[in-house]
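Hello,

I think I submitted the NAP job twice by accident. Can you confirm which output corresponds to this input? Input:
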Amino acid sequence: MNYDCIIIGGGPAGLTAGIYASRARLKTLLIESYSVACQAVTTDHIENYPGFPDGVNGFELIEKFKKQAEKFGVEFIAGEVKAIKENKSAWEILTDDLSYTGRAVIIASGARPKRLDIPGEDKFRGKGVSYCATCDGALFKNKEVVVAGGGDTALEEAIFLTRFAKKVSVIHRRNALRGTKILQERAFSNKKIEFVWDSVISEILGDARVSAVKVKNVKTGAVKDLSCDGVFIFVGYTPNTAFLKDLLTLDESGYIIADVNSLTSKAGIFACGDCCKKLLRQVVTAAGDGAVAAFSCQHYLESA
Ligand code: NAP
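Support: Only one job matched these inputs. Its output is below.
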C-alpha cells in the first residue's frame, strides 16, 4: 500500500503529526507499537497540558488525540518497525511481517524507561519490579515500596504511589533532586515519602516476589538491606531508535538529530517528540513538534 506520509509512533507527537498531515489531505498511515505504550498513556495525571486546569488522565488525553486523528482520516495499524529502506524516491517501512511504502516518513517513536541493569531486576520484573506506577501502583496497597531516581518522573510517581503504599522510599544517587521545584515541595511535604540520599540500589532481593533491596551509599560505600514489597524504577529514558542507527544521524545516546523544522539527515524523513535530541520532553512539546514535522513533510511533498 502506498502513502504520502507514514508516521511511526502513536504518542502525542505522532498523533498530532497525523492530525496535521491528514488535514493537509496527505494520505497518512500511522504505525503504532503493540508492545510499548507511549509514556503519556501510563501517566495517571497530567497537570501541565494547557486547557485542562484540573489536570487530565494521560490515557484519556491520548484517546482524544487519536479520535481527532481518526476523524481527519489517518489510517492506523499496529506493528513493530524493524527497518526503513530507501526505495527509488520513496521509503519502504518494514514491520515484522508487512511492508508499507511512503513518499515521506515522520518518526515519532518516543522513548522507553531505562533499566538499572542490576541483579534481580529481570528476575522480579512483574513480581514487584515495575516501570509504571499507574499500571502497578494499586497492587501495593498498605505495602512499602522504593523508587529509584530523582527526576520529575520519580517524584511524580512517588507522590502517586502514596495513594496506595504506606511508605515510599525514594533512593537517589545524589543529595539534590533533578525534578522541578513544585514536585520537590510536594514530595518533601508528603509524610509517606522518605528520601535516601547519595545512594543506589545495587541488587533486588526476594524469593517468589521482591522482599528487599540492597542499598549502597555511593559516598561511604556502606551497603544495607532495605525491606520492601515493590521497586519502581524511574531513572530516565532510552529513545526507540535502534532501527534507525544505520539510516539517520543520532547523538551518542541514540536520540535523533533533527532541526527546528523536524528535518533529519535524510531528505523525506522527519522526526518529532521524545525520540529527538532536545531540552524539554513533555506532551505539549511533543504535540508542537508533531505539528511542525507534518507541516515540513507537506512542504517537502509539494516541492518534490
Ligand atoms: P531524568 O530527568 O533524566 O531523571 C532521571 C533521574 O534518574 C535523575 O535524577 C538521575 O540522577 C537518575 N538516574 C539516572 N540513571 C541512574 C542510575 N543508573 N542509577 C540511579 N539513578 C539514576 O528522567 P525523568 O525524570 O524520567 O524525566 C524525563 C523527562 O520528562 C524530563 O525532561 C522531565 O522534565 C520530563 N517529565 C516532566 C514531568 C512534568 O513536567 N510533570 C513529569 C515527568 C517527566 P541525576 O539527577 O544524578 O542525573
